[in-house]
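Structure first, sequence second, as always.
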């Protein structure tokens, strides 16, 4: 595994980890929070009439985990899979949101609701855990998302450089031992061993306009990204996964497809 990512708040930029715990809801603390409007739509960098509401400026915000709860480990020794507690229990982790002007607020507080409502121009409040729906988190179609470096290489920009993985917002980025472009497509239905966890690849990930959005001063608006994915691979890039056996993972762990 070449990199490991967590997005503590839905549709905000996230944080890069060196190690983490994968449980039934994916990376511990991933998409644990979202902003909810007064019509009970979740604020997003894309739109969906029944669930997500497009709110400009979401990707200008960054969320980071300031204090860990449960078995997630960002630094320090690797947790033992046999002794780590479930990440589904206990209080949510403390998540700090940084605004473009440098101000910071803590997710789930009245101050954060007021500051982000004023910044984004509509009444919003932090929502934790999605009321137990969708793995108890604010995920789209699965609790975990993976992309290979072969897919990033197959979608180069105008300068020939690989696609930045943050366009796709994966949890796991891995370098496949073989398989060519879009190597992960061939893994649908298979089991994968990564670190102490066992994962099942459930389906390919169909991309949306969110891949084109600017992300503060880190990624510019890129209107051709979605078209490139559409031409190259039927608008799919990456795969969704379910966690079959929870466990610790770390950058550098090999990905091992299970025969069968």
């Amino acid at each position: 595994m070449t990199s490991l990512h967590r997005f503590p708040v839905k549709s905000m930029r996230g944080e890069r980890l060196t190690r983490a715990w994968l449980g039934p809801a994916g990376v511990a603390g991933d998409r644990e929070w979202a902003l909810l409007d007064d019509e009970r739509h979740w604020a997003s960098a894309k739109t969906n009439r029944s669930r997500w509401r497009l709110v400009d400026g979401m990707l200008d915000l960054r969320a980071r985990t300031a204090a860990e709860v449960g078995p997630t480990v960002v630094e320090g020794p690797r947790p033992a899979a046999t002794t780590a507690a479930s990440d589904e229990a206990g209080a949510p982790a403390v998540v700090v949101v940084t605004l473009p002007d440098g101000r910071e607020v803590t997710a789930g507080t009245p101050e954060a609701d007021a500051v982000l409502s004023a910044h984004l121009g509509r009444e919003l409040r932090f929502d934790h855990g999605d009321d137990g729906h969708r793995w108890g988190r604010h995920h789209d179609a699965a609790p975990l998302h993976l992309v290979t470096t072969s897919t990033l290489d197959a979608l180069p920009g105008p300068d020939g450089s690989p696609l930045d993985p943050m366009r796709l917002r994966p949890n796991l980025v891995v370098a496949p031992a073989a398989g060519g472009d879009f190597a992960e497509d061939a893994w649908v239905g298979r089991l994968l061993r990564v670190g102490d966890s066992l994962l099942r690849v459930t389906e390919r990930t169909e991309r949306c306009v969110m891949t084109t959005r600017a992300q503060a001063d880190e990624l510019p608006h890129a209107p051709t990204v979605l078209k490139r994915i559409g031409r190259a691979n039927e608008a799919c890039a990456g795969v969704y996964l379910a966690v079959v056996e929870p466990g610790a993972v770390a950058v550098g762990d090999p990905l091992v497809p299970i025969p069968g």
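Margin note: Confidence is low (pLDDT under 50) at residues 72-89.
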